[in-house]
UniProtKB/TrEMBL annotation:
It comes from Timema douglasi (Walking stick). This is Anaphase-promoting complex subunit 2. Residues 362-380 have a biased composition (Acidic residues). GO terms for cellular component: anaphase-promoting complex. It comes from the Eukaryota. PANTHER family: ANAPHASE-PROMOTING COMPLEX SUBUNIT 2 (PTHR45957:SF1). GO terms for molecular function: ubiquitin protein ligase binding. SMART domains: APC2, CULLIN. InterPro entries: ANAPC2, ANAPC2_C, Cullin-like_AB, Cullin_homology, Cullin_homology_sf, TPR_ANAPC2, WH-like_DNA-bd_sf, WH_DNA-bd_sf. Keywords: Cell cycle, Cell division, Mitosis, Ubl conjugation pathway.
Amino acid sequence: MSELTKQGFGTETTEEEGYEVFDLIKQEDLCTFIEELAINLIENETREKIAPEFWKNFNNRDNEVDGFNKFKTAVRDLYDSVILFLPALRKLERLRDHCGVRKDEDEIQCGGCSQELEQCHCDEIMATFNETNRKLIELDILEKLAGDVITALIHVRIENHVQEMCNASFSCSYISSLENFSNETLLCSQWLDTVVLGWLSRVYMYSPVQDITHQAINKFKQKLLHHLYETYTCTRIDQMFNIIIEYPDSQPAVEDLRLCVQKTDLRGYLTRKLEQTLVTKLLHQGVNTPDVLTAYVAAVKTLRQLDPTGVLLDTVTQPVRKYLRNRHDTVRCVVTALTDEGPSELADELVRCQVQNVDENSPLEDDIDNWESWEPDPMDADPSKTAKSRQSSDIISMLANVYGSKETFVTEYRTLLADRLLSSISYNTEKELRYLELLKLRFGEGHLHYCEVMLKDIYDSKRINGHLTSDLNFDLIRKQEFPTTALILSAQFWPAFKEETLELPQIVKDHFQIYTEAFEMLKGNRTLNWKPHLGFVTIDIELKDRKISLSVSPTHATIIWHFQERLDWTIEDLSHQMQVPATVLRRKIAFWQSQGLLREVSTDMFVLVEDTPGGRCKDSMTVDMSCEDEESDSPMASAHDQREEELQVFWSYIVGMLTNLDSMPLDRIHQMLKMFASQGPMSVECNVQELRHFLDRKVREHKLLFSGGLYRLPKT
């Protein structure tokens, strides 16, 4: 123990010598410093030596008697140690009085009224409070006068306590605190007993019938505990969006909410509140589609833990699914996430080994082995869906079913795959093939057969190009001034291409003809139908002071080709020469303007620029670059355009039906069209709503008449 505690704040001195020391300390203005130094020494001594010695007494305990004896010994030793500080503390108190210093923390305040003890009147107030309650209880009017007020005060106190306890904290479980299972966190049930019910007991403590009062308080405790659960549940429901976004870190909060919903009647409120929150925070143009998808995936995982039956998930996310179905880039974002090389939740979901093969259109029976744990579906469950069908769908299948069927999702994926294959300069399809195999596990080989053929076309094209180039029988190297390769696509398996026109230079068309003849020699009765606007052209441009190597589209290459024949062109003349619309041509010319090779000297008049600005000569300078057109449009027709083309197949049948039957209702037309749904590259499906929009558009185009719920052809 330090000299401070042993000798009592220094060596023993007479009272006169002590005051001389105090005068010196006061003169040097060291009163506060000396006091803080002494207090720090006492605190360190207590923390480092006294407290550890105290707790050592409780390490081992053989029985209750032994435990009590050790407790008695620990308290005795603690008292003996602390009592040694008293001489030093008395001298500190004399030093304070001598220096006239009194610190704020020394002014002890009442915990009830926050006043200094000298000004506290809590005892008088409590005496008056108890006396008043006693009289009201004897008159049997306390409950009538103050019952509602007491209840309201307690409810407010509970609500404030819950807010303080779990505000914005989702990584810890508080349900054990609510049920008083754990002592590691703030115990709400214990808090309810000590704080709330302790106060309530003081209100009714003078009741003449104590047993009845005790029973009433216990009954009131059950109501308060229920209110405690309701308050906690409502708080978590209000925070549900943030809980979803932070999942899986918020799993403890989700598990708490799952248990609380079972104890309260707030399932309906949870459904309405969460659905409204998702609509407000997600379903607007200010949120990017990838962010909506991320939130949707997190909601699926969260709600599956919250409600394993899948009913809540099916109900709450219905507006999100409908909204995603109407966003044009949803499938593109999904497929991009699925096939992303970087970390992605959807990519991880795709490569999981366990695959659930469930036919959603067939009746499914619950597992008979678990009949003892069977529970009925919630009252808000859709009776047309079985429990197993709601629980079995994986996240990828759910995203695919956003469009109502796997076929629509696969069609969109097919279009995106075609875009990716055509935008790649190499023939490497290893990554696409790997993801296609994984998707086949999810959707079946039949749905993705066309995609498999598309990848095979790329592989076959590489093989055919190599064969035609290396085989001397075809002699392509000698016949062609520059090498020509082709992607040979099976037209019936690929999505429709955008219809664009482009008149290539004659020398390029001659090369195409040479390649076609060689292909016909190789394949016999097969020929090629070229798409001149698709593909890549590697060109070398030699100017006066530099040489540029570029990989550009055929349209860009044709534009610059014509400028070697003439130094200036108007948009109108070049558009007529290339058979390209003027608006498209101007957009393409902008690329060459950005490269400094073309300049607009007057409206719609462009000239070739051979010299670099400043006239500096840069002989033998070579610049390698690739063309990144400002427009990133897909060469494939959009899904909307493809769907319009598929629906257009029905038009001739509709005209024939209305010609023979005069007029028909929508449902009858839809039923008769089902037998004609086998056109196009895949089975064409058309639901009633889609057919209605198609027929209504024909009405707006004055090709149909509609009245009285019947469609008919206009009279000619």
